[in-house]
Amino acid sequence: MCLEDGTHTTYSSSTSRYAQLSSGNKMMATTLQQQSANMAQQHHVALHQLETIILAAEASQLLQQPHTFSLEDFLRHNPPKFNGKANPNEVDQWGETYNFF
What we know:
Elements: H1 11-63, H2 71-75, H3 88-97
């Protein structure tokens, strides 16, 4: 645009530059929103996978709990009775025989 004194105004170029910046900002905002949505989806999937892994581990631990031996388990093997007349060698042999308890 030309003014009466022959100088040019930068109004139209400023408006054009503002429109370009505004358009660029809108594109950037759209891109950031898309990235945010993608990251939220990935986060959701990762949490779901982690929950599945934790549940599987807990179920596995429940199935693999070690058996605790009781007195009844021990007596099923018919261990020798103590008669009070054992010598040290017999005690060592008895301990080696029933060491798995």
